[in-house]
Amino acid sequence: MAWRSLLLSSLCVFFISSSSLAKEEAVERRGNLRPSESEDEPGKGAVPYRYMLGLYTRKKGLVSAVEAGQADTVRAFVDKAVDFEQLPGEHDKRHRYFFNISSLSNDDVVSAILRVFREPTPLTVLEQDGPPERAELYTCSRGRRRRARLDSKNLSPKSGESKTWYQFDVRHAVRRAVRKNVDVACFELVVRSLRSGREVNVVNEGFGLNSRHTDKTSLLLVSSKSLGPRSITESPFIGALTNATAGSGGREKRRSRRKNASPRRTRRHGCMRRSLQVSFHDLGWDDWIIAPTNYDAHYCAGACSFPLRSHLEPTNHAIVQTLVNSMNPRAVEKVCCVPTKLSPISILYIDGKDTVVYKKYDDMVADQCGCR
């Protein structure tokens, strides 16, 4: 029908023009291929908040790998395509995604998934009876290196009328980038007609329509295992620890009034585990820690007096020291009530690059107490 052909032609012109205009604006904002150097404070403008919080709550997806011990960290990298130069008209039929993965330099990548959102367009709705197509994901060509195909997904004509997330396996590409110290991972999406074998415009097919600051932004989800110790003395905790000790006078006063802060009470009882409710709001960390809002860290307190009880699992040295102290208190101090078994907790937080991170930290909860 003539009216249908005219409408489809108009829609094609509209989407191609919109794509080119967006690329021209990106070039005006960024004149080179380097990512933005600015790093806002943690918590400012992070997009994958809801998605990662859902994984944290349900313990599904890549987060389940952390719980199973296969990985200890999951990061959700946001597409930084608007920070890079894309020449107008050069890739009208393709769409590129850029991710700053520099924070993976000290990690062993376990898995990596690219999540891409497809938004229905008037063209995809009208072409429900059209030929089947396939979305193909490649690495970006750089210099003499040609692009390499990573994964593909078939697109049924009926899928064009509904909002859909597509997931592509990019583990090998991310592992290679980390191994070669590449800070920015680049992927290129192509949509191809299965009937003709030709590429079609990805924007017309509903890909690449969403800006960075929406819940539909493309995400690179990477689960990894830290090669070094998982300590809260690392960034971003180290900065928060410094700020907390320097400017938390009001919160310190509130904590000092708590009943369990009195050392005299704990000395009257034997060594045992006690409750220690840690509030990230009281610590001033709630602006960048998403979950949990608080947890019971427990602590150990009480006297280690002679004779030491077996449930405290004292070492031979602790037994001898306690015996000497009971005979001559001036000779040596009493042994101390300390944690003898610790367990980890998982924390969902936002780092300084607006990356939402799910990470397991060791030795965060005192499970058992003893005299040492």
UniProtKB/TrEMBL annotation:
Gene Ontology biological-process annotations: BMP signaling pathway
- Residue ranges of the TGF-beta family profile domain? 252-372
Pfam families for this protein: TGF_beta, TGFb_propeptide
UniProt KW S-adenosyl-L-methionine keyword? no
What PROSITE patterns does the database record attribute to this sequence? TGF_BETA_1, TGF_BETA_2
Which Gene3D superfamilies does the annotation name?
A: 2.60.120.970, Cystine-knot cytokines
The organism's place on the tree of life at top rank = Eukaryota
UniProt keyword terms in alphabetical order:
Disulfide bond, Glycoprotein, Growth factor, Secreted, Signal
Protein's cellular compartments: Secreted
User: Per UniProt, what is one GO molecular function of this protein?
Assistant: growth factor activity
Its chief place of residence is: secreted
Name the InterPro entries on file. Answer: Cystine-knot_cytokine, TGF-b_C, TGF-b_propeptide, TGF-beta-rel, TGFb_CS
| Signal peptide extent | 1-22
One GO cellular component term, please give it.
extracellular space
Segments carrying the region annotation (Disordered) are: 242-269
Give me the stretches of Basic residues compositional bias.
252-269
Presence of keyword tRNA processing: no
The record's family statement is: Belongs to the TGF-beta family.
This one is known as Growth/differentiation factor 6-like
* Organism per entry: Branchiostoma floridae (Florida lancelet)
